Amino acid sequence: MVTDIEKIIDSEDDDLFTVVGTSEENIEKLDSAPYSYWRSVWKNLFKNKIAIFCLVLIAIVIFFTIFGPMMLYNPSPKNPIEIARLKNLSPNSKYWFGTSGRGECIWTIIWEGSRFSLLLAAISSVINIIVGLVVGGLWGYIRKLDPILIEFTNVINNIPSLLIYLMLMQLLEPSFWSMVFVMCLFGWLGLASMMRNQIIIIRNREFNIASETLGSSSRAIIIHNLLPNLVSIIVQVVSGFVPSCISMEVSLQYFNLMDSSQITLGKVLNNAAEGQYVNYPHTLFFPAIVLMIITIAFFYFGLALADATDPKTHM
Prior knowledge:
Layout lengths: L3 H6 L14 H5 L8 H11 L1 H23 L8 H7 L19 H36 L4 H12 L3 H11 L4 H10 L3 H15 L2 H8 L4 H21 L2 H14 L10 H10 L7 H27 L7
């Protein structure tokens, strides 16, 4: 009985098959473009409409933190009479977001405060990421570090973080760099612990054991085996760094542990909460909206980036 395959082979249609020959160049030739990890990442990311929307929101916020005060700058009043005249004004053509209970232009102080808060969060996040990746990588490879770092992590995790930050800020002089120091003192522990766990899991998988058995170098194992599987998990953890740093700044501002002369987003919110925001809701509404936009946009963009960097989602 003639099989279907034999019928196809015996077919007179020569277009069904192409003779490659014995040329090494033809044998190695690919009909499709070679797989590129980062090309697939960006392709998946920009297919996600939520990610694009959040990225646009982040770009808008950054734009206004730089140029917002230049677009409408109303200096804070110093004279008590002028403060009394300007406080709690509703939004108008001169004061787009109205004025606060201290007579300050809410538009101006929101963007000046957001600039400080974003800069603080960005620097703290970068330091936490670098320290977390380095310590986590060493922790995963050097098993002798396990007893020390596990006990250290258990101690720190069982102490309320806000209590630690409050005690440290009481001891330090309130300033930008003291805030960075406090946020970076233990902020890297979560990322380091996650890195350690994932490295141990991946090192014990069959494909990595096969690579080590075949004599692959440590550099090749890290680049081709570990990093592609770790990037999405790292991004998912890192996506919460900026919102958490801003939230911590708002909390410390609430306890008056920041530099009182520095305008921050937390200070704007704290002043609104202390004022008559029930009678003048615009004093709390606008800074709260900006804070929500920043935290939600960074969080969801981080989640979308984590999905895009996961090799399992690449086609």
